[in-house]
C-alpha cells in the first residue's frame, strides 16, 4: 500500500469562507437590493489575513536564495504579521525576531512567543510602529538578521494577487462590484485590487482609514515618509474615514448578531462597507474580516 500523501499546514493558508451578512444592515441592504459578503480570514492557521503574505514572503525569498533554513529573520509588526511570520518561521526552520510597540494587546505578544519568536518591545512614546520599522532596519545593517520588510516587499501583495483576489472572483462568480478593506500595511488592498481590476476595471475598491484621533488596530494612516512602498494609490477608488467608536461597535455587533468574532479593524471595514451600501444598488460588496477577535479580549473592546 502506498503511504497516504497527507497535507502540511501551509496548504491550509487561504481558501477562506465568503459568507453573507444576514442581520446587520438587513433593512438597508434589502431596500437597495445589495448583497454584503464577509471574507473570513480568521480561518487561516495563524488566525489572520497576514498568513498569506507571511508565507509568500518567506517562500519567495527561499526560491530566490535570499534566505535558507537556520537564518534569522527580523520584522517590525503591530501584531498579525508577526504572529503569521512566527508560524511560518517555525514551520520552515528560521529564528524569528519581532519588534512591536508595547501598547498592543498581550494576546498578540503571547501568540508570537508561543511559536518560538523572540519579541522586542519598543516604547510607544519613542515612535510606535515607525520607530519599530527603523529599529528592524538598523538591526539588519548590524548583521543581526534579514528584514523581510512587509511594507516594501512586493511578495506581500503578490500573495493577494495569487490567492485572495482570485478566491473572491471565484466565490462570487465574478459578480463582485465593490471590495472594502482596512488599510494598514496596504498589501491586501493593493493585491486584491490589482487582481480584481484585471478581471473587471469597473469594480470599485474602497479603503477604510482611521478618522482623526481614532486608534484602530490594523487601520492606520502613515506619515508620508513611512507610507508603504508597496502601496499604489491609483488602485484605490475611494477612502472612507472610520471613527474608533464605530469600528468597535461594529466588531461587537458582528459577534452578537452574525456570530462572527473578529477584531476591531474588521468592524471598521464592515462600517465602511455599510456606508458604501447606502450609495449603491444591486451591488455585491465584499469586505475583509482580517482576523479573529480573541486576540483583543484584554483591550476591553468586547466588554
Automatic annotation (TrEMBL):
Organism: Hydromonas duriensis
Cofactors (names): pyridoxal 5'-phosphate
Name of the molecule in the record: Cysteine synthase
Keyword Amino-acid biosynthesis: yes
GO MF assignments: cysteine synthase activity
Pfam families documented for this protein: PALP (PF00291)
UniProt xrefs under InterPro entries: Cys_synth, Cys_Synth/Cystath_Beta-Synth, CysM, P-phosphate_BS, TrpB-like_PALP, TrpB-like_PALP_sf
Pathway named in the protein's UniProt entry: Amino-acid biosynthesis; L-cysteine biosynthesis; L-cysteine from L-serine: step 2/2
Domain of life: Bacteria
NCBIfam families with a match to the protein in the record: cysKM, cysM, PRK11761.1
Chain sites annotated for binding pyridoxal 5'-phosphate: 80, 184-188, 265
Main EC class the enzyme belongs to: transferase
Residues annotated as domain Tryptophan synthase beta chain-like PALP: 9-291
UniProt EC number: 2.5.1.47
Catalyzed reactions: O-acetyl-L-serine + hydrogen sulfide = L-cysteine + acetate
Amino acid at each position: 500500500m502506498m503511504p497516504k500523501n497527507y497535507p502540511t499546514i501551509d496548504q491550509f493558508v487561504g481558501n477562506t469562507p465568503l459568507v453573507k451578512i444576514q442581520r446587520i444592515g438587513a433593512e438597508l441592504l434589502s431596500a437597495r437590493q445589495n448583497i454584503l459578503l464577509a471574507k473570513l480570514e480568521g480561518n487561516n492557521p495563524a488566525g489572520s489575513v497576514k498568513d498569506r503574505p507571511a508565507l509568500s514572503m518567506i517562500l519567495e525569498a527561499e526560491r530566490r536564495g535570499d534566505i535558507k533554513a537556520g537564518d534569522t529573520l527580523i520584522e517590525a509588526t503591530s501584531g498579525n504579521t508577526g504572529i503569521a511570520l512566527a508560524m511560518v518561521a517555525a514551520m520552515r526552520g528560521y529564528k524569528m525576531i519581532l519588534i512591536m510597540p508595547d501598547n498592543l494587546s498581550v494576546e498578540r505578544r503571547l501568540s508570537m512567543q508561543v511559536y518560538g519568536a523572540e519579541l522586542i518591545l519598543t516604547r510607544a512614546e519613542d515612535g510606535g510602529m515607525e520607530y519599530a520599522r527603523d529599529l528592524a532596519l538598523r538591526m539588519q545593517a548590524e548583521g543581526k538578521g534579514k528584514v523581510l520588510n512587509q511594507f516594501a516587499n512586493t511578495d506581500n501583495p503578490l500573495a493577494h494577487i495569487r490567492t485572495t483576489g482570485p478566491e473572491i472572483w471565484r466565490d462570487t462568480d465574478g459578480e463582485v462590484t465593490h471590495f472594502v478593506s482596512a488599510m494598514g500595511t496596504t498589501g491586501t488592498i493593493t493585491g486584491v485590487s490589482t487582481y480584481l481590476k484585471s478581471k473587471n476595471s469597473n469594480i470599485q475598491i474602497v479603503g477604510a482609514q482611521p478618522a482623526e484621533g481614532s486608534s484602530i488596530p490594523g487601520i492606520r494612516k502613515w506619515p508620508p515618509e513611512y507610507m508603504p512602498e508597496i502601496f499604489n494609490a491609483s488602485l484605490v477608488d475611494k477612502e472612507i474615514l472610520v471613527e474608533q467608536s464605530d469600528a468597535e461597535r461594529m466588531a461587537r455587533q458582528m459577534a452578537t448578531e452574525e456570530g462572527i468574532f473578529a477584531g476591531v479593524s474588521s468592524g471598521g471595514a464592515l462600517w465602511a462597507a455599510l456606508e458604501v451600501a447606502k450609495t449603491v444598488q444591486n451591488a455585491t460588496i465584499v469586505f475583509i474580516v482580517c482576523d479573529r477577535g480573541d486576540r483583543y479580549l484584554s483591550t476591553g473592546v468586547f466588554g
